[in-house]
Amino acid sequence: MIRSLTLKWVLTLALTSLVGVVLIAVVFNAITAREFDQLLIDQAQTAMADAAARYYTDNGSLDGFHVMMRQMNGNAGDGSAPGRRGFSGRGGPPDGSGPSPGLVLVDGDGSVVSQGAGYDLDDQVPAEDIKARVAVMVDGAQVGEVYFVGGLPELDTREKLYISTINRAILFGAAAAVGVSALVGILLSRGFLRPLRALTRAVQGMHAGQLEQRVEVRSRDELGALAAAFNEMSAQVARANQLRRQMTADIAHDLRSPLTVIAGYLEGLRDGTLKPTPARFDTMYAEAAQLGHLIEDLRTLSLADAGELRLVRQSISPQELIHAAAQAFQPAAKARGITLSAEAAPDLGAVPLDRERMNQVLANLIGNALRYARSHITLRAGAERGAIRLSIEDDGRGIPPEKLPFIFERLYRADESRASGDGESGLGLAIARAIIEAHGGTIQASSAAGMGTQFTILLPAGANA
Fold first, then answer.
1. The domain containing residue 410 runs over which residues?
2. What share of the chain is helix, strand, coil (3-state, %, to 5)?
3. Domain shared by 291 and 321, yes or no
4. How many angstroms separate the CA atoms of 170 and 107, rounded?
5. Are 458 and 388 in contact (CB under 8 A)?
6. CB–CB of 240/248 below 8 Å?
7. pLDDT by residue (tens digit) across 320-330?
8. Rounded Cα distance, 24 and 6, in Å
9. In angstroms, how far apart are the furthest CA atoms of the chain?
10. Is residue 184 assigned to a domain?
11. Could you tell me which of 132, 107, 106, 128 has the C-alpha nearest to residue 119?
């Protein structure tokens, strides 16, 4: 089994060239042989017609021409006598039926005057046996005809040498074409296979653990598109692996911190160094609740990844949804000196939504806004291109543009100074996106440095959304 792509490429070119040359050679040889045979037949007919014309001029008729021809054919050993060329059975009747191949001379009445080719003197040649004819002309008058009745001329030594030379030339040409094709294939394969070799090395590098690989894009054809797609895939795989490692480290930290606190209190209570007070039990309960919150967030994401996030839909008014969310966060907003308002278009119809899940999304977005808003947060509900549009806008410091594309990734924190021990798992925005997409909607963020951030949710307004 051939494993080298270069060898396959070269063999393909060579075989293609060989097939093409063979086809050309067969067609060329057939045409050459046919035309060459026709030339010989025409020459033989013309030579006999000329000899007959001279004989008629000398004798006043064609009677006795066959005797003269027999004498000439017997005396001329070098083949120079007119009309002496013999005819073989090439192309004649394979079973020997019908007239013998050759030439026949007839007089003005159509009677055979040159014995041979299966016809006797004074015979009449049937019209269907005549393959070709040449008139015998004397002083502008036709005194006879030379018929070709079948068979192909016998080749002399020079003619056989000519045909042999032509066949050898075709053979040498075919060999040269195959050789040139193989050479061209080798030269072309170097450039053609260079991107594939680069891709192979890059894939092997990824297999060895070096996930971020890049190959040079040298063209705009299919190989160039393949190289560009590989570069994009490699970057995504490397980033996903980096996020996975970061996620593992963050989850381990988020699990270890409350467990350490709980274990410390339990050890102190067991040893008697700490007294069991309500405050200590509240602290342990809060840490356990934080663990439960993290585990529930991870469970929600795993259900979303598996497409099994269950939604309990009911008809909900968008106005009611955002006003209820704003009311729930009013105490926290007032405590921070932030104005929290809700605005809704009056003609919005009810939408089939999971109330608990949507409250979870809005709570996450409003909670994030409260951390960074300076003076106000605005919740809006409206219609946009047949969909329901919900937005949460704050006037905080904004999100840097280079970090904006990644804020919905798991455990990603645009604010690196914000510790994971603030009670949040870092999975909120990822969960929000999963819930919105489960509803058949989209969520996007827009932000400008120093101008605040706006999260926009588009939800299908149809009853079957």
1. 313-460
2. 55, 15, 30
3. no
4. 45
5. yes
6. no
7. 999 999 999 99
8. 27
9. 155
10. no
11. 106
